[in-house]
Specification:
The complex is a heterodimer. Chain A contains eight helices and 20 strands. By secondary structure, chain A is α+β, with helices and mostly antiparallel strands. In chain A, the strands form four sheets. A six-stranded mixed sheet of chain A has the order 6-7-8-3-9-10, with helices on both faces. In chain A, strands 13-12-11-14-20 form a five-stranded antiparallel sheet. Chain A has a five-stranded antiparallel sheet with strand order 15-19-16-17-18, with no helix packed on it.
């Protein structure tokens, strides 16, 4: 049974502080949506509202046909995976996994069989009689995953499940989470502050800030076509340059920015207005000695391994740009910054 | 390679050891004396004072009362203290900070004052019978230990396991019993032992609350000592000591005492 999760006009307060403002969110059947943002953006609050650990001030939460808004947490039937794993220290792996089944009044033999099957599916056969204290972090998170999955919940939720693991294990576990979620076709809500993690496993990602969703889209769209300056900055468009379109010339948009004329391919950019913002990643501004681009004076140079990065002084402000490894340029040198369309995007000025 | 120890350090350690164990040796020694007086070193060897201790019905009776008070008083106190400690740990942000201090008041107030005020209000004020007054007094006396020691294990508790249980379909009240309590077992046992021993040893509160026909063992020992200065007191003390050691041994065997060193 796959269902969708819908949050309608959710507003939430901690005391008098508003933490979520009129939030709408729809997670389709079998879809994995991530809530991405820095701490305090409201992503964990959203998850806790759906879990029933917090109550919204107003708004509705629906899971399929069921209205969850005022339902007690234990009756919501949601599988939850916590950042701290939250395994029961006094129970063996098998009893941890069987806990939810026990609450559902399933007979011991059936319960143990289903728990053992799930333990095997997460690759922990042979560990059933161990206690959480005797497991590594990765193994613990597998147990937590098995424990949430075994009750066959219509909705799975993850609260920063990988932040306590080391980098290598994180990649391994997120693949595992995605694999199990897709195999079961379970609708899932995933909370994280790690952009790579969110983008790699999600169907769609909601980037949050100050209790609001700034943009909800597929990772590809978020990465290449952010809707506003906040999202642009979040996904790595470090430079925002004010520009004005002046005309067109053979498939190129002519624009004036920082006292120079730039040519932007029409196929890549759809201008929101005549006056717009050009957002560029450091890789989106190529530092070259000559060429058609933004004139700049080079400042501090740092070595990135794949490129050199320069702090550049331009008439459009201080910008960060990358230059090729082959020819490092000296501090104080004059150069031009040539926009690379694939690493740039345009934004509405008001979206700043 | 040999570790070098300063002779003064060794001497200090030995002195501390003697200081700690000396009284025990003296009590055990004098309880075995065959003379009429409490003295050390003992004159002759006999078990007659042990026999005497068990012959005196007042000792048997008050020992029963003392154990009843220690068990029931502690149980009563845990019934109040554990939920209080839970609430204060779980809702640390929401509850006012001074609340925790209220529960240690019985330790801060001199026991004499506490005993007197309980007598004034409960025993004479509401005319509550002696045994229930004693029970209330002892429960109040040990409440700080119950709240503080359980609180210590709850303060480092990861309450997300409670949320995990709830998310798996376990109602909150049930999660308290199946998830919280089993995981603070060590703290509960430590609290119980501390409270039990405190109650068993109490003189100052019991002094005010004992009445006709009902007394506790420490009070009876005092009364006995005022009349007869014989080794019976020492032998009763030794019996008490071994019972305590016995209880600890049972706890150690069944549950482990590692929590005392943790």
């Amino acid at each position: 049974m796959t269902v969708s999760l819908t949050l309608e006009n959710i507003t939430a307060h901690y005391g008098k502080t508003m933490v979520l403002e009129d939030l709408d969110l729809h997670v389709g059947e079998g879809e994995l949506v991530s809530l991405l943002g820095s701490s305090g953006c409201g992503k964990t609050t959203t998850l806790r509202l759906v879990a029933g650990f917090l109550e919204p001030t107003s708004g509705r939460i629906r899971l399929g046909e069921r209205d969850l808004t005022r339902l007690p947490s234990h009756a919501r039937d949601i599988g939850l995976v916590f950042q701290t794993y939250a395994l029961f220290p006094h129970l063996s792996v098998r009893d941890n996994v069987a806990f939810g089944l026990k609450q559902r009044g399933i007979a011991t033999s059936d319960r143990n069989k289903r728990a053992m099957d799930m333990i095997e599916r997460v690759g922990l056969s042979g560990f059933a009689d161990r206690y959480p204290a005797n497991l590594s972090g990765g193994q613990r998170q597998r147990v937590a995953l098995a424990r949430a999955l075994v009750i066959d919940p219509p909705l799975l939720m993850f609260d920063e499940p990988l932040s306590n693991l080391d980098a290598k294990l994180r990649v391994e576990m997120r693949v595992e989470i995605r694999r199990l979620q897709q195999a079961n076709g379970t609708t899932a809500l995933y909370v994280t502050h790690d952009q790579e993690e969110a983008f790699s496993i999600s169907d769609r990602v909601a980037i949050m800030n100050k209790g609001r969703i700034m943009q909800l889209d597929t990772p590809e769209v978020l990465y290449s076509r952010p809707a506003n300056a906040f999202v642009a900055d979040f996904v790595g468009f470090e430079n925002v340059i004010e520009a004005v379109a002046t005309g067109e010339e053979g498939g190129m948009i002519l624009a004036e920015a920082g006292g120079a004329q730039l040519k932007l391919p029409k196929s890549h950019f759809e201008l929101p207005a005549k006056e717009f913002l050009l957002a560029a990643r450091a890789d989106g501004l190529l530092v070259a000695e000559t060429g058609e681009g933004l004139p700049a004076t080079l400042g501090l140079r740092t070595y990135l391994g794949r490129a050199y990065q320069y702090v550049c002084e331009t008439r459009a402000g201080n910008l960060t740009a990358n230059g090729p490894l082959g020819a490092p340029l000296e501090t104080g040198a004059n150069a031009v910054l040539i926009p690379q369309p694939e690493q740039c995007c345009v934004l509405h000025r008001e979206a700043r | 390679m040999k570790r070098k120890l300063h002779p003064a350090l060794i001497a200090f350690a030995v002195l501390v050891f003697i200081f700690l164990t000396g009284p025990l040796v003296i009590i055990i020694g004098s309880s075995l004396s065959s003379s009429e007086f409490l003295e050390f070193p003992p004159q002759g060897l006999s078990l007659r004072w042990y026999e005497n201790a068990f012959d005196i019905s007042a000792f048997r009776r008050t020992m029963g009362t003392s154990f009843f008070l220690a068990v029931a008083g502690t149980a009563l106190s845990m019934l109040v203290g554990v939920p209080a400690a839970y609430a204060m740990a779980r809702y640390r942000v929401e509850l006012p900070g001074w609340l925790g201090n209220v529960f240690v008041l019985p330790v801060l107030i001199p026991e004499i004052v506490l005993g007197f005020s309980i007598m004034k209000t409960i025993t004479t004020g509401y005319e509550v019978p002696v045994l229930p007054s004693l029970l209330i007094g002892h429960a109040l006396l040990v409440l700080p230990y119950c709240v503080r020691v359980t609180g210590a294990s709850l303060n480092s508790f990861d309450f997300s396991i409670e949320e995990a249980a709830v998310s798996l379909g376990c109602p909150r009240w049930k999660a308290f019993f199946v998830v919280i309590l089993p995981n603070i077992r060590a703290g509960l046992i430590a609290a119980f032992i501390l409270a039990f021993i405190t109650s068993l040893n109490d003189v100052s509160i019991s002094l005010f609350l004992t009445g006709p026909g009902v007394s506790t063992l420490p009070i009876q020992l005092l009364a006995h000592m005022e009349q007869f200065f014989d080794p019976t007191i020492a032998s009763v003390s030794v019996v008490l000591m071994f019972i305590t050691v016995g209880v600890m041994a049972v706890v150690e065997r069944t549950l482990g005492l590692t929590f005392l060193t943790k």
